[in-house]
Design brief:
49% of the residues lie in helices and 12% in strands. By secondary structure, the chain is of the alpha/beta class. It has 3 domains: 266 residues, 2-enoyl-CoA Hydratase, Chain A, domain 1; 179 residues, Rossmann fold, CATH 3.40.50.720; 86 residues, N-(1-d-carboxylethyl)-l-norvaline Dehydrogenase, domain 2. A hairpin with a 2-residue loop joins strand 2 and strand 3. The longest helix is centred in the last third of the chain and has 21 residues. The chain is globular, with a radius of gyration of 28 Å.
């Protein structure tokens, strides 16, 4: 065996050179790997004893992409496009043997090889769009030559990996290995090619994907139409379309130049900077100070109190993770409804082909129900998911304190309430934590882990371990009304309400924020969630609301009519005959006019840009207040919360990253301008003022508070 570099080796067996990448954990294509691959291809290509070459990965996967840590640093030769070209130019047949996840640059290496074989369990993908990028090592030029436009576009625009079986079907693979012994299958495949006298087969010279140009162009037109509404404001999806269109129309070398130029343009864009920040932020959010001081408790038996929408969704998330769950309800009828709600989710998944009937039966076999809290006596963790009322939750916690064994973690799925108060009401506050799931709990990725004052470190670590088991993105939050996400939501929603009262319409605000990149505007979200939820919160807060605080009553007037959104057929929008997409409602606009007249407000016009600027300034300013109070550890935790729980466009990086890209001084200037009309609401956070005075950024705070 010859060591080609620190992470790449070469061995020759029966005329077959096997180049192995061993760069754990995912064989990322860093500089040393690229150097080793280039050297190995050169040596194998020039060795008269070598008749064929195999590229394979050691460990759990074929190379799963570029080393993202190199982004933003000066490029060092050999670049990946050059390595791929050297593979394609090799005078001996090169076989890529894929297992695990062949993603991004790893998949592009496979495309540059002359032949491809994959383990049956392998997954292949081009996820660059999720970083605001596009395949930059020939992926946009080589894949369409094999598959045509539609499969290439679908893979690149979604970023979703495909199975080995699907890759074989669309023409990417030559063979799938079902034996489980990929090295042996690849060796046999290479020997067979040698015996057959098979020639090199450069992908750049193939054109099977161009056989039906009418279908090729139709696929491009259809995806482009879809993108114009779904990906407005983003750069990389449209550049991907441009490159795949060019692949069928210009020589390969020119197509490669176009791809490289598009890649570098995307890499320099705010979109890519935002998405790369989000990528790292999601991983950094899981790093918490408690992890250095404690290990998680066992989490093998879980309980859920409450079988309503949230309780059922949480139970489904637990069952999907392969864990058993015991659901508690107040009576047999309520328990039956809870079980039915859980089973309905699984039945829908079976109907949509997401799981088999056997998998559904196995999941439901892990569900148990009871009306007696004593059934939770051996639980490791219990999640309370009852009505959002402190007195009700305190009763539940008092009962759990009595029946659960010492060391059982007691968690509350509250959206706003004080976890410290709940903890203080039982004998073991160190076992109490907040787990704020987002609805639907089995689908939404975010889990706010709310850390009360007296909680034990191992309880916090256990909560993060549970989030990982459930496939959630966890963020650590301190205790305050609304924690991170809902506290910010209350603030930027107030900013929106002020604009409505001052002259904008809810429909213009929703449209302006969709144009910014949100999937829905705040008034659409209110109708989806149910206006009665916010109404209950406003009534709860009313006794402590400062008398000098501006309060907009428009939402209350709408709720007083029983218009709670989609579930009642009316909210800010009308939903005729059960429609899920609302239409503008003149009666709502009349209510708004009445409220303006009552306060003597002469409405003025707002541009979409001003709507966006005010909305985001309020959001960012409250984020700075949350940081100053220690409710969030780092700005990146706020970004992750808003991206995964509140629809903030991921490609903009989150509100705090967005503030850095706009400029903290610009945000501060806007706040000071707005403060002329309302000094209380628009008072700039001291933290933001200090950052601007220092010439620092919010990302500097991320670096100062690394865990």
């Amino acid at each position: 065996m010859t060591e080609l570099s620190q992470n790449v080796s070469l061995a020759i067996n029966a005329g077959v050179a096997v180049i192995t990448v061993d760069n754990p954990p995912v064989n990322a294509l860093g500089l040393a790997v690229r150097q080793g691959l280039a050297k190995g291809i050169s040596l194998a290509g020039g060795d008269p004893e070598v008749k064929a070459v195999i590229l394979i990965g050691a460990g759990r996967t074929f190379p799963a992409g570029a080393d993202i840590r190199e982004f933003g640093t000066p490029p060092q030769a050999p670049l990946l496009p050059d390595v791929c070209q050297s593979i394609e130019d090799c005078p001996k047949p090169v076989i890529a043997a894929l297992h695990g996840t062949a993603l991004g640059g790893g998949y592009e290496i496979a495309l540059a090889a002359h032949y491809r074989i994959a383990d049956a369990a392998a997954r292949l993908g081009l996820p660059e769009v999720n970083l605001g990028l596009l395949p930059g090592a020939g992926g946009t030029q080589r894949m369409p030559r094999l598959t045509g436009a539609a499969p290439a576009l679908d893979m690149m625009l979604s970023g979703t990996p495909i199975s080995a079986a699907k890759a074989l079907e669309i023409g990417v693979l030559d063979e799938v290995c079902d034996s489980g012994d990929l090295p042996a299958a690849a060796q046999a495949f290479a020997v067979r090619l040698i015996l057959e006298g098979a020639l090199v087969r450069p992908t750049s010279k193939l054109g099977t994907g161009f056989a039906d140009m009418a279908a090729y162009d139709a696929a491009i037109a259809e995806r482009l139409t879809r993108l114009q509404s779904r990906a407005r404001g983003q750069k990389s999806p449209f550049k991907i379309v441009d490159c795949i269109k060019a692949a069928a129309r210009v020589p390969f070398d020119e197509g490669m130049r176009l791809e490289r130029a598009a890649f570098m343009e995307c890499l320099a864009s705010d979109q890519s900077k935002g998405m790369i920040h989000a990528f790292f932020a999601e991983r950094q959010a899981a790093r918490i100070p408690e992890a250095s001081r404690a290990k998680p408790r066992p989490l093998n038996r879980l309980g859920v109190v409450g079988g309503g929408t949230m309780g059922a969704g949480i139970a489904v998330a637990i069952l999907n993770a392969g864990l058993p769950v015991t659901m508690i309800e107040r009576d047999a009828d309520s328990l039956a409804h809870g079980r039915a709600a859980v089973e309905k989710v699984f039945q829908r998944n079976v109907a949509k082909g997401r799981m088999s009937a056997a998998e559904k039966d196995a999941a439901m076999g892990r569900w148990q129900g009871a009306t007696d809290y004593a059934a939770l006596g051996d639980a490791d963790l219990v999640i309370e998911a009852v009505f959002e009322d402190m007195a009700v939750k305190q009763q539940v916690f008092a009962r759990l304190d009595q029946v659960t064994r010492p060391g059982t973690i007691l968690a509350s799925n509250t959206s706003y309430l004080d976890i410290n108060t709940l903890a203080a009401g039982i004998s073991r506050p160190g076992d109490v934590i907040g787990l704020h799931f987002f609805s639907p709990a089995n689908i939404m990725k975010l889990l706010e882990i709310v850390v009360p004052a007296k909680v034990s470190d191992d309880v916090v670590v256990s909560a993060f371990a549970l989030a990982k088991k459930l496939g959630k993105v966890a963020v650590r939050a301190g205790v305050c009304d609304g924690f991170i996400g809902n506290r910010m939501l209350a603030t930027y929603r107030r900013a929106a309400d002020y604009m409505v009262e001052d002259g904008a319409s809810p429909y213009q605000i929703d449209a302006a924020l969709r144009a910014f990149g949100y999937p829905m505007g705040p008034y659409q979200v209110s109708d989806l969630a149910g206006g009665d939820i916010g109404w209950a919160t406003r009534k709860r807060k009313a006794p402590t609301r400062p008398p000098e605080e501006r309060y907009v009553e428009i939402a209350d007037r709408i709720c007083e009519r029983g218009w709670f959104g989609q579930k009642t057929g009316r909210g800010y929008y009308r939903y005729d005959e059960g429609a899920r997409t609302g239409v503008e409602d003149p009666e709502v606009l009349a209510i708004i006019d009445q409220e303006r007249a009552k306060k003597g407000i002469t409405p003025r016009t707002f541009s979409d840009a001003e709507i966006q600027n005010r909305y985001l300034a309020a959001m960012i300013n409250e984020g700075c207040n949350i940081l100053a109070e220690g409710i969030a550890l780092r700005p990146l935790d706020i970004d992750v919360t808003l991206i995964y729980g509140y629809g903030f466009p991921r490609w903009r990086g989150g509100p705090m990253k967005y503030a850095d890209m706009v400029g903290p001084e610009v945000i501060l200037g806007r706040l000071r301008d707005y403060a002329r009309e309302d000094p209380q609401f628009w008072r700039a956070s001291d933290l933001l003022v200090d950052l601007v005075a220092e010439g620092s950024s919010l990302d500097d705070l991320n670096k100062r508070t690394e865990v």
